[in-house]
Each structure stands twice: as structure tokens, then as C-alpha cells.
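Tutorial sheet, problem 5. The two components below are modelled jointly, 448 residues in total.
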Amino acid sequence: MRRSDDGDQLELERSGGFAGLTLRALVPFEELSQPQRAAVDDSLSSPPRRRPQADRFQYQLRVGERRVVLEEDDFPAVLRPLLRRLSVTR
Amino acid sequence: MSGCLCSIVPPNVLEQVARTGSPADREAALNTLAIDHSLRTLRIENGTLRGLAARRLALAHGGGGAPLRVIYDAQHRTDTHASLVMRTEGEPPVGDTAANEAFDGLGHTYRLYWDAFQRDSIDDGGMPLLGEVHFGVDYDNAFWDGARMMFGDGDGRLFTGFTAAIDVIGHELTHGVTQDTLGLRYIGQSGALNESISDVFGSLVKQFALNQTAEQADWLIGEGILGPALQGVALRSMKAPGTAFEGDVQPTHMSGYVRTASDNGGVHINSGIPNHAFYLAATAIGGRAWAGAGRIWYDTMSSGAVRPDAQFHAFAMATLHTAERLFGLGSSQAVAVSEAWTAVGVLKGVRALDAALG
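Model answer (C-alpha cells):
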């Protein structure tokens, strides 16, 4: 997996939902398990087709220059524990 | 009248019989589906069958004018439609606040659409209104999935649940109406229009339930569901976009239009512009908003004159044409609509001047 230039980290963003709030988290790679790293890499390498649905969440994964946007149903289950780290951006 | 198939027949089998069986079997299957909760668990994609079933249900309940509600307990699951029924039409309140609030909110939404616009449910064909409460774990959202309304309980930090605000329920079911009418693409300006229309009718559901005038209404969306981590009174304000809570960045004017890749192009942010236009039109027209600006917006939705990829300007012109058709060229209502869209920077004001000069 290619690493970001500014600290080898995953930038995770959740936007949308009824509220339309945007929440973000920065997760250092060393805190990701191997399955989580693989899920991030798979998502970045093979992005699923976009199917925007009203008021569902939308997730963005960014690693360095690589970025993918995922619909709520396409967000890998193995990454769900990371959602606890999200906080509201101002 | 034909008999009913045994209710232990799985819904998918009933659906298959209703679609392909002999006339007698189809009748029996539809009867069973109509009186059984099974119907309410189906995601009927076949339009013909959906229409038949909807008419059957409407007839069974007096030909429209009364909702058919079912509230299910999702039991914190998200992977499949729930089957555990908590409350159905005609039953008294149950011992679950979210279930009762969802039931009442679905009813208030049905009432606005039927009493104000003579629309019989989401599809105007008596479609049952189905809701699931306790969706997911600490789930901070509510949404319409194309067949059912899903209500999370909130995580207690950002949100305290989503059934307490009837405008939220009206908002979500209106996504179903929009899907059934304009089919607005959920991205960019057409997506922001989709969101705004849901806020408009969500607010009207609340105003109708409280019998408020445009002046009396609070024009807030999501009042009463914010948790302690969000400082404010609601999620959005149609009267004063950008002021509902700390962190609300909705613009009131095209000069503040936000370009972003998040949230499908900022559909929940830029909806502030058409939201404010509706508020301005409704308060300028005065009285009950569903009878004036609401009628204009609803007729525009159901006119088929707006494309799925419509931008703000096209929708604004469509509402102006509707106002002129309903109330007359140069009418106070048409002028109010024109001036509202001009005030938020979507129209240039020429039509407003033309209308005023007659």
C-alpha cells in the first residue's frame, strides 16, 4: 500500500446522513490490523460503483493522493471499529 | 370473493402466485397479501403487482384517506428487513416510545399529503407506510430505503433518536414522494433540491399538525433530536440557514454555494438556498404555507415538468410557472415566488419586474 507523505495514516471521513454532518478521523497505519489494511487497499484499488441514496452515509478513505468514496452499504465491515474515532469537523 | 391462501405461505411464494398464477390464485394471493403483514414486508418491484396490491389495500380501507401503518422492531440489526411487528393500523399505543412516535409521525405525514394535496400515500396509490425503529446500534441516522423508513436510536452524544421530530419523518417519506415523482438525482444541485423538497414538506408536516401559519412556524428541521455534543436548537433553519447549530454552514444565497466532494456534493449544505427561497415565498404569501407556497411546490413536483438532473434555476422557473398557472400571471403568489428566488440569487429578477408591471 502506498503511504501518505505526511505520516503514514488513513484519513477517514463520513458525510451525509439525514443530518448532513461531516466527521473525520486520522488513523495511523500502525494502529490498523492486517485485515483492515487489506480492506483499505482493496477499496482504493477497486472502487465499487457509486449509487447515491438519499440520507445514507457516504464514506471517504484517503491515503496520500489516493482517495475513494464508498456508499454506506459498501463500507467494509472490518473497518467499522474505526468509526468510533470519528469526530465532528467545524 | 375468493378465499385467502394460508398465511403461513412465505411472502415470496405469495408474490410469485400473485404475479403468475391463475386469476383465482392471483385473487387469493392478493387477498392474503392485503390482510397479512406479509404484504408489508415485501419490496414489490413489479409495478403492475404493486398497483394491484395498493388498490386492493385502498379499497379494503375505504378507498384512500386513511394510512396503513406498520412499525417493526429492527432489534438493532441492519442487514435485513425486520419482521417483528410492534404496532399496526388500528392498534393502541405500545410500550415503546420510538414505535409510537414513528407511528404518529407516519400518520401526520399521510394527513398532510392527503388533506392538503389529495395524495394517497407515497405512491398516490395507498402504499402502506412501513417503519423500523431501533435500527442498528447507536445509529445516528434515519433514512428511507425505497420501501421502508429506518430510524436509528442515536448514540446519545450527537443524537438522541430520530422519531421525536415529526419533520424528520416527513422529510424521509418525502424522499419517497420525490422518488415517485421527479426522481431527482442525488448529487450536486439536483441532490440539494431533493434534500430541500424533503425539508419543505417535513416542515409542512409539522406546521399542518400544529395548524400553524407561516408566521407562527419555527421553520426548523430536526428540533429536539440533538445530543449534548451538538450545540444548537436544530439541524437546519429554513428561516435563517447557517444558524441552527454551531457548525451549521448552510448558505442562504448562491454567492455562498459550497463546492465539495463530501455529502454527494454538499446536498445537505446547499439545500439551504432553495429552503430559504421557500420560506421567503411562504411568508410573503402568508397564511397556512401548505395552501400557498406548499401547493405551488407540490404541483411542481407532480407536474413532470422538472428533469431528474434539474439545477436550481430550472426548478425555480418551474415553480414560477406553476404559481402563474395556479394563481395567475402577476398574482401576488407568483410575484412572491419570483422575488423569493431572486432574493437567494437563483433568478435575476426580470420575471419579478415583468410580473409586477403586469
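Marking note: Chain B touches chain A at residues 140-146, 158-159, 162, 168, 171-172, 175, 178-179, 185-187, 191, 194-195, 198, 222, 229-230, 235-236, 246-247, 261-264, 267-269 (CB under 8 Å). Full credit if you identified this.
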